[in-house]
Amino acid sequence: MQKKSQSNLPAILILFSVIFIGAMIVMFLGFNTVDANHLGVKIKFGKILGIQEPSIQWTGIWTHVEEYDMRTRKLVVDMQGSQSAVDKTGQAIFGTINVNYRIKSDKETVVELYQNIGTDIVISDRLNIDAIVREGFKQATSKYEALEILEKRQEVKETAIENIKRNFPAQYFEIQDVVITNIDFSEEFKSAIESKKVAEQTALREQNQLEVVKFQQQQEIEKFKAENERLKLQGKELNALLIQQQWIAKWSGNLPQYIITTPDQATFLMQLPLAKTS
């Protein structure tokens, strides 16, 4: 009998080991972990059991936990190349949109995300977040011509941000900020703008030169007028002197009995006939 008990001992030890390992596996499978800054949705046979906050919990071997990252998500959308937006006339407009957003912090939103949209890894694609951002920028640029966008960059940015916020799935997410940078244009358009600037600067320089010539000509005219006026005055003076010289030349040497003066000609003399003496 003792020999028979000793022969069964290895089988008992093996059975005990199998049971122990199985129990440990069950214990291990029954625990679920939710990382910091995450929330987990507990599911058992397709039924939602509730929310698990960051921790390690015994949830049972048939319970699965889907985690959702509650931290800020950063989305960078490059509107470059074939993905560019266009202006009112079809001119390519480039830009970079940075969007910071996150899942709403209440547990009901996380449950709704799982029920209506899916797991964390697919929610951005299924809600078309990237497409919403691109379309918001395109809607803004299509209202302006390229030259207007060049002059009204801030206004275009504000319009694009309003479009993005209006169409963002606010039921599940809250936007923290939207920043649009690097609004740019095609090389052909920039070359045309540069050529236009050069032409405008050349025209302005020529206009300035024309104004200088006009000013110089006006100065010459004014000088000519002044000189002409001076010559007229000199002519009047010379004419008066010439009359005096002619009068002196014809004077007999006898003083007149009367001198008639006028405001314009104070030196006018008139010889009157002498009175007869008896």
Task: Briefly summarize what is shown.
This protein has 7 helices and 11 strands. The protein has 278 residues and is an alpha+beta fold. The chain has 3 domains: 2-69, no CATH class; 73-185, Tetrahydropterin Synthase, Chain A (2-Layer Sandwich), CATH 3.30.479.30; 199-250.
Give the secondary structure arrangement, pairings included.
Blueprint: H1 2-29, E1 31-34, E2 38-44, E3 47-52, E4 55-58, E5 63-69, E6 73-79, E7 85-86, E8 92-103, H2 107-117, H3 120-126, H4 129-141, H5 146-151, H6 153-167, E9 173-185, H7 187-250, E10 258-259, E11 269-270
Antiparallel strand pairs: 1-4, 2-3, 2-5, 6-8, 7-8, 8-9, 10-11
Radius of gyration computed on alpha carbons: 52 Å
Straight-line N-to-C gap: 211 Å
Task: Tell me about the largest β-sheet.
Answer: 4 strands, antiparallel
**Mean pLDDT, all residues:** 81
Supply the number of structural domains.
3
CATH fold name of the largest domain: Tetrahydropterin Synthase, Chain A
Number of strands: 11
* CATH class identity of the largest domain: Alpha Beta
Catalogue the unreliable spans: none
Q: What is the CATH homology-level superfamily of the largest domain?
A: Band 7 domain
Helix proportion: 40-55%
Instruction: Assign an overall shape.
Output: rod-shaped
Count of separate DSSP helical elements:
7
Q: Output the helix-strand order.
A: HEEEEEEEEHHHHHEHEE
Q: Give the class from helix and strand content and strand pairing.
A: alpha+beta
The CATH architecture designation of the largest domain is: 2-Layer Sandwich
Strand proportion, as a percent range, falls in 15-25%
